Amino acid sequence: MVVSSTANDPGESLHATFGSRYVRSSLPRFKLPENSIPREAAYQIISDELMLDGNPRLNLASFVTTWMEPECDRLIMSAINKNYVDMDEYPVTTELQNRCVNMIAHLFNAPIGGKETAVGVGTVGSSEAIMLAGLAFKRKWQNKRKAEGKPYDKPNIVVGANLQVCWEKFARYFEVELKEVNLREGLYIMDPVNAVEMVDGNTICVVATFGSTLTGEFEDVKKINELLVEKNKETGWDTPIHVDAASGGFIAPFLYPELEWDFRLPLVKSINVSGHKYGLVYAGVGWVVWRNKDDLPEELIFHINYLGADQPTFTLNFSKGSSQIIAQYYQFIRLGFEGYKDIIVNCMDNAKSLRQGIEETGKFEVLSKDSGVPVVAFALKSTSEHTVFEISENMRRFGWIIPAYTMPPDAEHVAVLRVVIREDFCRSLAERLVSDLRKVLVDAEGVQADDGGSEKKAKYWRRVVDRKKTSGVC
Ligand SMILES: Cc1ncc(COP(=O)(O)O)c(C=O)c1O
Prior knowledge:
37% of the residues lie in helices and 14% in strands. The chain has 12 helices and 15 strands. The chain has helices spanning 39-50, 70-78, 91-107, 126-148, 165-173, 192-198, 221-235, 252-255, 323-360, 388-395, 427-451, 454-460; strands at residues 2-3, 15-16, 119-123, 156-160, 177-181, 203-209, 241-244, 268-274, 286-290, 302-304, 311-313, 364-366, 375-380, 404-406, 415-420. It is globular, with a radius of gyration of 25 Å. 41% of the residues are buried. Bound molecules: pyridoxal-5'-phosphate. The site of pyridoxal-5'-phosphate has 15 residues, from helix 4.
């Protein structure tokens, strides 16, 4: 690549990028630089620095899509300059969003007729979807309490301690108490009986996590619904359920169509799902759908007309990109039910194969189940020699990014490694991962057997990482 001379630097002749002065000085970090630099140099310098990021395809910490078809990449690039909020200017994009909402609502068995429009909205991800769903529950509950002349200042949500951090954000930002149902060794999802026991008159909803971030397991939404129906009957309350199906929403309909977890259950009033997880779109799209219009208080919807026509909006942000919505629609029509099913079945098979390979090392107990989201979460059988944090660090030598974390209360003493199986994680990568894991274990044992010297061992396990929380797990 050749760096051309600039208006600011007319005397400079053409240089090869690495022969130019631009690669010789350090980059501005704090202040906007005084002068411009050639675009080729800016491109080269930034892309070189980005080489030091991890490889997204080997980032097994994340549920978020890291591969899409080139045709879809082209659609994404062609819409990169479209602001989604300009609905009057980009009516087709708005129409594609509405089609996606309808398809998702049907997939989740919303009680709508064939041609009726579903109630829902595209968001930046499940986090925004959850904020919107939570706000709708809070406002509905407050309106009801006001009408009954009862206090409405102490709303709470009942949720498992395995909750994703966005629920903690919702609680803190929108002043709702979280009543967390503790886990225990061997049970890493919310116990429905304990959950429903914790419900009181201030509970705005019970959250069922359908695809736990920690182990991929589905919570038993049907059981929660059953127990809550009884409790509502006894108490006169009408506590509803929200299903956080961030990852499970695009798994269960294809693999377990008979499993009742969605709008087939009467108390399920809203569901969120991440388009950018098993919806198979790059980061930046989520969805929330409501059972029907009455579950979304009208006063939360803003009507704007300064973009050309009346546009109802219910989102936290105003502007955002359009590409992800378009990409979601591409995936829906490109893959159809059949295509999604094939991909998810492959993911499950690869998860099973990885699970088997990990078990065969003899060193680990796999805590995730064969059903649920394709995740393999595994703990060391013995932690006397090394910890999962050390293993996670050492797997980085091979390029693998595998998070390690401790479980939430009351299972904090259990520490696990977790691998998320995505569409682009194929069998040969699973085999390679197990073989690298074996190398890490053998090296560690070699060091211990060598002279028993703790110094050598400490050198090998260069860093002991003190990660108490599940931060970085998305
Ligand atoms: C259960 C659950 N809920 C919510 C989220 C947040 O999703 P997003 O990254 O789409 O905002 C996640 C992310 O992993 C999740 O696993």
